[in-house]
Amino acid sequence: MELMHGPTLTDHSADKRKAPSSDYWKWREDYSRRKAPDSEMYKTLLKERQIDADVEQSWPQIFQNAVLYFNGRTGEYSAIHLANLVRLCGGQSAALLAKRRVTHVICVNLSASKTGQIQTSGLKSKIHYVRPDWILDSILKRRRQSEFSYTVIQKALGNTAITDYFKNSKSTRTISPQGFDEKAPKKAKLISR
């Protein structure tokens, strides 16, 4: 037998039907829903990461009614594997960010322009923008964790005035011509020699 380069087992030949060009994304989501992820493989991966020993009993259905969209990088975790874990735990993953359908966006960080769009459009209240750790911690604790601890978007832009950036937090240090002073002098005196 001759050794082959690359992976020897793939799922690319599982369904050779061509996707209809009219509604490719719907076809892709239907196809991924029909194709169940390998439960045993993910149990092994979770054991290697020492995530949960009780996963062998059954996958906790903690992501029921949750539709997740993976936006860009997901840190050290593969978005494909995270999506499969979500599916094993009762959730769905979306190929497109459909604002009426998606409940959670999984990402490590967002660009400033995306953050601004989200905060001005009011989508932050409808869609949870969370880090990938939210998925793994929820599986570890066998209970869906609060999104607040894992949120990517912290503060709305409209709540901060420009003067807030220049206020001293707890320190009373000020800048004077002589340098930093703990308390500002009432009057700076010029000493002549």
TrEMBL record:
Protein name: BRCT domain-containing protein
Lineage of producing organism: Eukaryota, Sar, Rhizaria, Endomyxa, Phytomyxea
Organism listed in the record: Spongospora subterranea
Classification via Pfam families: BRCT_2
InterPro entries: BRCT_dom (IPR001357), BRCT_dom_sf (IPR036420)
Stretches assigned to the BRCT domain: 58-152
Signal peptide region: none
Gene Ontology CC annotations of this record: nucleus
BP-aspect Gene Ontology terms: error-free translesion synthesis; error-prone translesion synthesis
Superkingdom of this protein's organism: Eukaryota
Molecular function terms from GO: deoxycytidyl transferase activity; DNA-directed DNA polymerase activity
